[in-house]
Amino acid sequence: MAAEFDTFLASGLRWFCHVDDDNYVNPRALLQLLRAFPLARDVYVGRPSLNRPIHASEPQPHNRTRLVQFWFATGGAGFCINRKLALKMAPWASGSRFMDTSALIRLPDDCTMGYIIECKLGGRLQPSPLFHSHLETLQLLRTAQLPEQVTLSYGVFEGKLNVIKLQGPFSPEEDPSRFRSLHCLLYPDTPWCPQLGAR
């Protein structure tokens, strides 16, 4: 994630969004969500990984530690940070400093983002139910809700495939993640989507 963050800082773009490569991103819903935030505000938006803040030990001088707690958005569902906030994060997150910060609190990269934002900068995670990871029961999402969702995931849980429940032009064998069928529901004019008359 450190390389992604540095690439973003050098880009001049307004938003940094991290999404795992096995997720589906709905660009229309993502843009709608991001446009709702005021430009002047620091924004860290995503789905909390836990239903409570995480705790970490922060090393202090004289061989002491301080217990800190903070919320973080799970990288498995994706999250976004605006440029205004990202620039403030640079002292702990740019170059090798991101890895140093992560090693300091001995937590993974998505937790490190939350730590920097909440513990170092006093920011707050803006929770959003529109980001989804494989850790939730994806079948509970109704088909009518799918166009509003920013990210969707899939995975295997307790030996069963955990995917969105969606009828579509592709069979579960052709499309086990259901992402191809979802894409054709959201963007039916995509060249590789079967046309309505052919279904």
UniProtKB/TrEMBL annotation:
<comment type="similarity">
    <text>Belongs to the glycosyltransferase 31 family.</text>
</comment>
<keyword id="KW-0328">Glycosyltransferase</keyword>
<keyword id="KW-0812">Transmembrane</keyword>
<dbReference type="GO" id="GO:0012505">
    <property type="term" value="C:endomembrane system"/>
</dbReference>
<keyword id="KW-0808">Transferase</keyword>
<protein>
    <submittedName>
        <fullName>cDNA FLJ51905, highly similar to Beta-1,3-N-acetylglucosaminyltransferase manicfringe</fullName>
    </submittedName>
</protein>
<dbReference type="InterPro" id="IPR003378">
    <property type="entry name" value="Fringe-like_glycosylTrfase"/>
</dbReference>
<keyword id="KW-1133">Transmembrane helix</keyword>
<keyword id="KW-0472">Membrane</keyword>
<keyword id="KW-0735">Signal-anchor</keyword>
<dbReference type="Pfam" id="PF02434">
    <property type="entry name" value="Fringe"/>
</dbReference>
<feature type="domain" description="Fringe-like glycosyltransferase">
    <location>
        <begin position="1"/>
        <end position="178"/>
    </location>
</feature>
<dbReference type="GO" id="GO:0016020">
    <property type="term" value="C:membrane"/>
</dbReference>
<dbReference type="GO" id="GO:0016757">
    <property type="term" value="F:glycosyltransferase activity"/>
</dbReference>
